[in-house]
Amino acid sequence: MLIEKFDTESYNKVEENLLEYMIAVADRFAPDLVIDSDGNAYTVDSQAPLIFKRRYNQGKLKVSFSYSDYLKRDINDNENPIDIIRALGIDAEKFWYLLLFVVDYVEGSTTKTLKCNPSPREEIKRLIDFIETNEESVHDIYGVRHHQPMKLTLQIKGHRFIIDNPNTISAIGGMCGMALENMEYISFLDRCPSKIADKKDSVRIWLFAKMLRCFFDIHPQFAAQRKTGNDTTKSTLRLISKLVYMIGFTTIEDYRTDDENLKGILKQYRNYKIDTINTIYG
Predict the structure, then answer these.
(1) Closest alpha carbon to 33 in 226, 185, 239, 225
(2) CA max distance for the chain
(3) Per-residue model confidence as pLDDT tens digits over 60-86
(4) Which residues have a Cβ under 8 Å from the Cβ of 245 and sit 6 or more positions away?
(5) Which residues contact 174 (CB under 8 A, 6 or more apart)?
(6) What global pTM score does this model have?
(7) Cβ(240)–Cβ(208) under 8 Å?
């Protein structure tokens, strides 16, 4: 029996149990960050489950499929997603809520989302590193010698100011370094301009698969990949591939029958990192 509305005001053991899979993945992908009085950052339990509950209650989840779609058996498909889920020993109801969250999270990370440029602090650090890397030696009388000629250019329309004195450039780098040490975090130096950005469908598929594979990493007891006789294939990649098609992230029929396309996506984005802010879960 599906939850009609979650309790967002108090602890509910039954609901927490139903969200067990979802909470585990949320803590990995959307942990809360806390900064102590010394400026040290550390992670705490995610607020994503509470956000998810509220969105669920308000009908705001960004999904285009229903629970009946999830349970439906297509007569043209010998192995439906729900068959593999049950064959792997996964709790189908708990997995439903995980699926809702993952799709909603992926949409928040890839569709009309915010892409951040480097913050002022990051740009200043890059400037310092760039200057220091090019320093060959420092002499008490002659000053700084660079490995390669270097110049710093400031330009506005119709005017240009160029600094090419190694001593001046290194002094600027040194003063920037000292200034950063005294600049508090969560200041204007740590804010970055952002712009609306949409990611490719392939990135959406990659992130969806990455989050579900995280679930199987957390619960290795469900990660069996074997086939015995005429039993349902117990393959997590095959399951994810079929789900990609079911939820509408692709219209390519091959995703329903094999996982070769998904393997190609995972290989293509093996070292990829999301560079956007999730507009739903932060």
Answers:
(1) 185
(2) 85
(3) 998 999 999 999 887 667 788 999 999
(4) 251, 252, 253, 255, 256
(5) none
(6) 0.75
(7) yes
